[in-house]
Amino acid sequence: MVFILGIVLFALGICLSVALHEAGHMWAAKAFGMKVRRYFIGFGPTIFSFRRGETEYGVKWIPLGGFCDIAGMTALDEVTPEESKRAMWRFKTWKRTVVMSAGSAMHFILGFIILYLMAITMGLPNPEAQAAPTQPVINSTSCARAATTLEQLNDTTCPADAPTPAKTAGIQAGDKILSVAGKPTPTWTDVLAAVQVAGGPTPFVVERGGQRLNLTVDVPRVQRVVADGEKKTTVKEVGMIGASPVPKTLVATYGPVDAVGATVSFTGTMFSETAKRLIEFPSRIPAVVDSIFGGERDPNTPVSVVGASRIGGEAAERGLWEIFVLLLASLNFFIGVFNLLPLLPLDGGHIAVVWYERVRDWFRKLRGKAAGGPVDYTKLSAVTMVLVFIGGAVTLLTVTADIVNPVKLFQ
User: Fold this and answer.
1) Measuring CA to CA, how many Å separate 53 from each of 38, 86, 154, 306?
2) How would you class 358 by CB atoms within 10 Å of its CB: exposed for 0-12, middle for 13-18, buried for 19 or more?
3) DSSP one-letter code for 298
4) pLDDT digits (tens, 9 = 90+) for 318-359
5) Residue 317 appears among annotated catalytic residues
6) What are phi and psi of 45, to 5 degrees?
7) Choosing from 22, 314, 317, 357, which is the catalytic residue?
8) Pick from 148, 321, 112: nearest CA to 222
């Protein structure tokens, strides 16, 4: 039940994103005085509609997008004599650019708002902390026990107050281990490496309350299971002191003010990841095709709205609402950036045509010639149809893969 609820909620989130995308075009166009004829969510037969002012608003049966009908978006569009002066193509280049990029801007704004709300409630992932090494600061001492058999190694029973070498030597929670046996230990990995080769009384230097303390830990040699290859394990004798480090803060929450800076920083990370995924997009299509015919589904392959909604449902089912919300934010950033690619029929393609006209007319002016007039979109129809076909094929592939071999959070 929760799985279905998660899918429905994620789908509603996508519908909201689409609605705001088209609303961005509409609000910008109206602000500049362009005529907006219709604003609809969905395609196909109309469920309901109403008119307010000069614009008809409504919802259609197929919730796979939406549209904002602005009079005279191109010079080829038919307009009435009344609409002619307010046709979009007659407006200045920068105004048309703002209107056509306003849809993506709404995705970016929505993504930022989602991340900000995460920052002050659930918290944001900290990429720097994930990449940084664990610091050699003691969180607690734990039971250290010698074992000579796999049964003993698998035995997890151990008194919580059992004396450990670290505790016996006086090491406390909050101590920072500076060196082991004279070897500096800037990270917890260094501490482990030094301890594992140690044995018997071993000098430790720790920092506590700004002071350095010299302690001696009697390090026992114990048996430990060590992975040797994918399936083999061996029992190896290593030194252990019975202590664990303070875990890294992988997720951090912020106050209302601090959250602004943290959200801006994480938004930059999201844009970087989005650009990386767009660059890798073509190279990952063969893996999508392979997954349809029984190959293992790579979790890094592109997913459709169907696949994204399914992942959202799975995250909700397991109570991982952080992943649910983060996925919704990342989807908004991806759609926003993708829609600005200079390819027709995307908004970025129309922006590219508008600026081509501007640059072309600038060069014509330098040569003493009149402006060349609007671009004839009929000459671009062949290229547009090819791109529409490719986009449709990719959509069909990803939807099919998401049905027959979906990406799963947990195998």
Assistant:
1) 11, 15, 74, 36
2) middle
3) P
4) 888 888 999 999 999 999 999 999 988 899 999 999 999 999
5) no
6) -60, 145
7) 22
8) 148
Helix, strand, or coil (residue 229)? coil
Separation between Cα atoms, residue 407 and residue 301, nearest integer Å:
8
The candidate with the shortest Cα–Cα distance to 301, out of 226, 401, 389, is 401
> In the chain, what is the greatest distance between 2 CA atoms, to the nearest angstrom?
96
Q: Which helix (H) or strand (E) holds 222?
A: strand 221-228
Helix (H) or strand (E) holding 120: helix 93-120
Could you read off the pLDDT of 231-263 as tens digits, one per residue?
Answer: 566 677 888 888 888 877 678 888 999 999 999
Q: Could you write out the three-class secondary structure of 123-156?
A: CEECHHHHHCCCCCEEEEECCCCCCCCHHHHHCC
Measured CA to CA in angstroms, residue 233 lies from 151, 195, 224 at distances of 14, 21, 10
Token output for 47: 């469920």
- C-alpha dihedral over 52, 55, 60, 66, to 10 degrees? -130
Tokens of 34: 């362009």
